[in-house]
Specification:
The protein is of the alpha+beta class and 123 residues long. The protein has four helices and seven strands; from the N terminus they run βααββαββαββ.
Amino acid sequence: MLGIDVVRISRLEDLTQRFGTKGLKRFLHQDEIELCQRQNAYNYARIAGFWAAKEALSKALGCGIGTEIGFLDMSITLDSKGAPRIALDSQKMSYFQAKKSFAHIALSITHDADIAIACVTLR
């Protein structure tokens, strides 16, 4: 299964500037917010990439963000080489594995100009 999402970086920059950390906490965990900070500023491209990644995973699951899954049911980390990894919390992983058979979630995020794109595959 495949999910893709595209978002304007400026959209997430506007959200962040308007609502600050309170706005980010609607779709990011605290450790994800920390990954999106560099010194005293936010990395808006990374914030947008994380948004797109979570949207893409929800699409790969076939439900979108809503009743079955929310932004905070997913978490993004970086591996030792800085590549992003996305995971479902254990309750949602059990729920979706019962509905769809997959053992691995793969994620790719890219940015260009004012666009962030994420692609998720379930294998």
